[in-house]
Amino acid sequence: MLLIGCSKEEPVSSDSAPQDASYSMRLSIDLWPGYYPAIIAKEKGWFKDAGLNLKLDLPGNTDKMLALFSAGSIDAVAVAFGDAILVTRQMPDIAVILVTDESAGGDAVLSMNKEVLSDLKGKRIGTNLGGFGELLIRRMLDLQGVKVNEVNLVNVDASKVPDLLDSGGLDVGHTWSPYVGQAIEKGANIIFSSADTPGLIPDTVAVSGEFRRSKPEAVKIFLDVWFKAQNWWLTHYQEGNQLIAEATGQRVTSITLEGIRLLDREANVATFNDATSEQGLPNVLKTYNEFYARAGVIRTPAAPSILASEFLQ
């Protein structure tokens, strides 16, 4: 079994490296269903069979994971596209090699008060500030005609939102699956979600610039195996859910693709090259660059060259 832990102290790595693998790659992922094909492929031994020793970590803390990636301690991360763009502050040459999925309801804004959407002024609203969660919150506020300075934005990790809502530490909070389900179990209600902002939150896998340049064949192997695992999951859904639950220590009922649109290879090629629609990756990159510039988060916009579609061919 792949051992994956959610400790904030140290990532828990997968089993030891096979000695006959041609390439090695260390990947850290958020706890998010769109990234679970990596778990399936690891459990099935498909990476090893293809000649790739994939070391898989699940740190359980996005900020720490991004810090490790920026420091060069890991080769790749699976995170929301908005978070991947943030890494360009330290690593401008990262490569986004894959859009795993689009959040189409999987990211949610919740409150214990289901009527709070009509009365947001003065409320404590939690999300990971400076990232895609803040952009989602700002879109919600815009649609409700509420200014940012009329609410209290609080910086919190997504995993903490269910407990903070339950304890009264937050009035409103943004998080994602499986934490959305945990919050609902505590009595919270979804008041807004990524389904209300189509295309705003694509989820991705990014590799370091050094890995992109030195191991292009490893990237191609990774993608081939990823799409194999993704397709297998969609055709063996219950079996796949059981495998993922055992590997991550979650309940099977917590594993769901509801609110998540997985992207296969063909859909990836389309979104990487779609410069005309708002949901095409080049224009989503522009949206985040503009948001981060206004917020003073990034001085130099992420370059279009971070979109590494060449590996998908």
UniProtKB/TrEMBL annotation:
Keywords: Signal. Gene3D superfamilies: Periplasmic binding protein-like II (3.40.190.10). It comes from Litoribrevibacter euphylliae. Its main location: periplasm. SUPFAM superfamilies: Periplasmic binding protein-like II. This is ABC transporter substrate-binding protein. Transmembrane segments: none annotated. Belongs to the bacterial solute-binding protein SsuA/TauA family. Residues 33-236 form the SsuA/THI5-like domain. The keyword Signal applies. It is found in: Periplasm. The keyword Signal applies.
